[in-house]
Amino acid sequence: MAFAWGKVFGMSEQVNRRITFIAAYRTAQARGMADPAQFARKAVQETQFVYSKASKQQWGRGAVGGTLMTFKTYSIAYLELLHRMATQGGPEGKKAALLALGMLMVMGGAGGLPFAEDAEDVAEALARMLGYNISVKKARQELLEDTFGRGIAAFIDKGITGLPGVPLDVSGRLGMGNLIPGTGLLQPKTDHTSDVLEIAGPAGDMAKRAFDAGGRLLKGDIAGAALQASPTAWRNLAKGIDMATTGMYRDAKGYKVLDTDMLEAALKSVGFQPKSVATIQKANAEAQQAKNFYSMRAQSIRMKWAQGVFEGDMDKVQEARDEIADWNAKNPDQRMVISVPSVMKKVQEMRKPKDERIAATAPKAMRANLRAEFEKAREGL
């Protein structure tokens, strides 16, 4: 089954290499080169790349490096190809490099150009360090729409995915915007799990799914555990069947994301993300990230204000108020209001012993037992 599944991809790879070899061989003959076959062989290696261990960097050949660099061979080789054409190919090479980038932009849009998403992560991290809660993707999209109109802007931003009627997300598959793993760690977030797993690569994803599958198995969910531990192809097929059965795309918790049709279910079942799902998921991710940063800043400022009251430090209280004013000046569409009662409630919590705070926030059924255990611990002091 694995051979049959991979045969489709293997055949397309063979066709690409044969066409390249034939075209290069004929070019060499037309130019009167002494060894057309050698020229054609080099053309195949430099444009279709070599995927053996010998073509990897030395530290990427071992168990750890090889695992981290899984699926990175193509993107690295593509950047090397662009560099060779631009620096060693003369005027024609520079044109070829621009043509390659143009084709990449057609397929993946401006966000699919090399390092585009990495640059966005860095820009958003710097903006949030300065107190601005902005989305670079959203700002770029709005700028393009204001300049070119919505239809052309969608094509520039997402490539052919942005064209009307295209049912699947091509940019997510063919774009090369995210080349440096873990750049999301630069941004202040409530959870960096996905960024850490991005650095770990496929091995990290496999380990996470193994733990998730183990947890489901312990709960008696054998089917869910088997699906969680299965290859991506099988999980895509299961997701497609679920979409066809329920008429909706659901998230990992089983909650509805949006309604879908049979064509979108069929695309998902063979491994393609429907355009509608990709668009909504990206918008939801950006909105959630902005919401989380707002909550983090509000909580941080509220805590500083409460500490100032608790410690009797009025300078710290004023500093918290100044931070609120600074936030509202930089983010006028996301005004922050922190009420005095919420601050005083935090102060009251700070004045309680830790055991009382734990007992007060515990479920009602546990409070009496926890208070008894804490009282017993105090008697032993």
Q: Output the helix-strand order.
A: HHHHHHHHHHHHHEEHHHHHH
Please identify the structural class as seen in this structure: mainly alpha
With strands numbered from the N-terminus, the spatial order across the biggest sheet is: 1-2
Query: Strand share of the residues?
Result: under 5%
Number of helices: 19
Alpha carbon gyration radius: 27 Å
Q: Count of DSSP E strands?
A: 2
End-to-end C-alpha gap: 66 Å
Largest sheet descriptor: 2 strands, antiparallel
Write down the overall geometry.
globular
Mean of residue pLDDT values: 90
The percentage helix is over 70%
Segments where pLDDT lies below 50 for 5+ residues? none
Task: Characterize the structure shown.
The structure is a single chain. The protein has helices at residues 2-30, 36-48, 63-68, 73-88, 90-108, 116-129, 136-148, 150-158, 171-174, 193-200, 202-218, 222-229, 232-246, 262-269, 275-311, 314-330, 340-351, 354-361, 364-379; strands spanning 248-250, 256-259. It is globular, with a radius of gyration of 27 Å. The mean pLDDT is 90. It is built from 19 helices and 2 strands. 15% of the residues are buried. Helix 18 (354-361) runs antiparallel to helix 19. 71% of the residues lie in helices and 2% in strands. It has 381 residues and is mainly α. The termini are far apart. The protein has a domain at 278-379. It has a two-stranded antiparallel ribbon.
